[in-house]
Amino acid sequence: MTEQRASGRETGGGRVREEEADAWAELVGTARRTVTDGLVVGTSGNVSVRVGDVVLVTPSGVPYDRLTPDDVTGVDLTGRQVLGTLVPTSELPMHLAVYRTTGARAVVHTHAVHATAVSTLVDELPLIHYMAAALGGPVRVAPYATYGTAELAENMLRALDGRTACLLRNHGTITHAPTLTQAYGHTAQLEWMCRLWLTASSVPGLTPHLLTPDQVTEVGERLRSYGQSSPSGV
Predict the structure, then answer these.
(1) Quick one: which of 209, 72, 93, 219 has its CA closest to 151?
(2) What 3-state DSSP class applies to 112?
(3) How far is CA 194 from the centre of its chain?
(4) Quick one: which of 79, 74, 58 has its CA closest to 20?
(5) Catalytic site residues?
(6) Whole-angstrom Cα distance, residue 90 to residue 94?
(7) Quick one: which of 125, 35, 2 has its CA closest to 47?
């Protein structure tokens, strides 16, 4: 690890490897996108990415448009800060819980409006669309707990069991994936499905038709072979 860091560059918070610098740039871009796309307001929500045994994470209370390459903020899997001087997000326990228990390399947490609204109404997002399969199945709602606590992290893990996304009651969303692009895609998909269900449910005198768990499972099987088999499409 020491030799690898020596090939990086020095910042005010320590030496940053090239791989960490690139990951930080992508993390900042993803965090800014959550604001641009209306998934968070101000500094609510947070983003992280794992590089080896280091978790890069957005700092607490700093507007994303003010973050620079020198603001790299990183911790190890125990939460000990190893990069940067800015205080990590208060939701660090949730991020670390995901990395300790799954093979995820990226986590996105937002306060998306429609998803948060749904979290106050149900214990599980109704199967309004087959793309629930892309998140592992019916999306559960984790019971409410104060932000930044071990209790919230534990509630989240139970709701995430077998899933790549869940809702946090009266709070927001959290998703994980092998890459930041995929984690962000899960977040956008979840918010869209929540908006869809709220819209369909709001029509007076009508009740949305829902899919069955078996129908969603069938889609999950098909999704395993969806897309291009190689970069060339062959």
Answers:
(1) 93
(2) coil
(3) 16
(4) 74
(5) 91
(6) 9
(7) 35
